[in-house]
Each structure stands twice: as C-alpha cells, then as structure tokens.
Amino acid sequence: MIPSRPTRAMLYVPGSSDKMIRKSHSIEVDTLIFDLEDSVANHRKGAARESVYHGLRSASSSKGPQRAVRINPPSSDENLASDDLELLLPLGQLEGLVIPKVEHEADVAFVLSRAQQLRPPGSPPLSLTLCVESAASLLRMPSILETLSSTSHRPSSSLAHISSLLFGSEDFCHSAGIIRTRSRRELLMPRQQMALIAKAYGMAAIDMVCIDYKDEEYLIEECRDGAEIGFDGKQAIHPAQVATIQKAFAPSEQEVADAEKIKRAYEEGVKGHKGAVEVELSGRSVMVDAPMLKVRAEDAANVATRGFVY
C-alpha cells in the first residue's frame, strides 16, 4: 500500500549549511531531506555529516515534517555511504533514508544490513526512498524490487520499509543522452514508467525537481503534469516551492466535495440495485459505476485524509 503519511513535497536541505538546517525545522513541509550527496562538495562531506547529525539531534520530537537523509550512493562510494550510516542510523530522530543512484538490489541490501546492525531497538521504522537516476536503474527496478521482497531480503517491518521511488531527472538525462527541455516531452515516457512501477509495488512516486525555482507558473504547470501521470509528490530545492507543490498534490475543496457527492450517489444506487448512476458535477452529467467510484471518489477521499495537519 502507498504510505498513509503524505509525501507531496520533499525539500532538500544542504547538509553543509548549518544555517539552512536550523531554519528547516520551522518549514511546513511533508518531508525534509538533509542532503549529504549532490549539494555537498567532496572536501565537505565529513563536516556536512556532522552538521546533519547535530541538526537531527536537536530536532523537536513533536509532530512535524518527516526527517530523512540523502546519503552518499553505495553504488558509487560504499565507504562514504557507510560513514553516513554509521553516524546517523543510531539517531531516533532519523525517520527516512533516500538512497541515490540505486543500480542493483545490493545497494539497498547494504543499507538494510547496516540498519540491522546500528538501529537501536524501539526506533521508528525507516522509510526508504529509492532513486531512479539512470536508464539501467529504471529497467532493472522491477527485478530489484522483486528480489528485495523475497523472504531472504525482506526487512522486518519494525526496521524499514521501501515507501517510494524518486525520479532523478538530471542524472537520468545524462545516462540516456537526453536533452532536457522546458516542454518535458523527452522525459514523459521514463517518468510514466517509473510512476507505474511504483504503483505496481504499492509505493509512492516522487517526481523530478523543477529547476526553474523562481518561475511559479512553470512550477504549477510541472506539478499538474506530474499529478496527471500518477505522481504523488515532487522534490523541492527551495522553500519557496513547497506551498505550491503541496497544494498541487492535494485535492481541491471542489474535488473533495465532488468525491463525496459521487460516493453518496453510488451508495444510494446500490441500495436501489443499480450498478451505475447519473451524477451532476459542475453542470455536467456523468455516469458513475464501480471503477469511476475508485478514480473520482475513493482516491480523492484517501488523499484528503492522509494526515495533512501536522
């Protein structure tokens, strides 16, 4: 099942910036990702790790954003990834890990093995996000997930669960020789494919970063596009993007009202031994049957009740 905790916006916070780490705790966002990978220069990796450690330790235990860390990729540098995990896994404030550049099930198994060794008893289960950032990763992902779901590799539910797949557009473009444009046409197929894989395995799908972070109209357009092809949320690289993203990936008041109307009409129809009923929505007459009920009513109702109050 797609996790009940919302993942509409996942905001990256550079691990090398103490100031941004401190400010991040007051941001109303579904998930904070303290980044130890792309936003940190190689010579600052150790210092950033320490900053994230202290930032997590000082985090309030009250309800708020999910706090995750994007570690360095095991597929590229296992030593760096191991150092990240050794310092951060013992922290109870750590709720999620973002594993970049997942190319093989061994990348995830490595993280799970370290969690088994380092996670203290009673810690909250870790929410794992796997990043699809290459053509090979996208094509292998079903096999990776099948292997990880097998009895010999499946983590205990008290330790961790794979909650989402995340599309890394810039690295994906580089791996596939794609020229990225504002139209996003060239990325439609791989984004749709990744979203479908996520849904097939009961996970959330997280869309790519909008790099034009000062262009709100374009961000809205990109969010709408992602929601229409099945994404549940989107990565953010600036706090100014968060409110727009979270609004775009939540149902509007009208959508919730329509969902409730459809559900009531269908239930009344069932009582009258009808398999389909006519419903008036915004001046249009639509026919509602069981599949339509799922698409228009159940999905909107589920999203509307996914804990949007912190």
Automatic annotation (TrEMBL):
GO terms for biological process: oxaloacetate metabolic process. It comes from Jaminaea rosea. Substrate binds at residues 70, 133. This is Beta subunit of citrate lyase. Residues 55-78 are annotated as: Disordered. PANTHER family: HPCH_HPAI ALDOLASE_CITRATE LYASE DOMAIN-CONTAINING PROTEIN, LYASE BETA SUBUNIT, PUTATIVE (AFU_ORTHOLOGUE AFUA_4G13030)-RELATED. It holds the Pfam family HpcH_HpaI. One of its GO terms (molecular function) is lyase activity. InterPro entries: Aldolase/citrate-lyase_domain, Citrate_lyase_beta/mcl1/mcl2, Pyrv/PenolPyrv_kinase-like_dom, Pyrv_kinase-like_dom_sf.
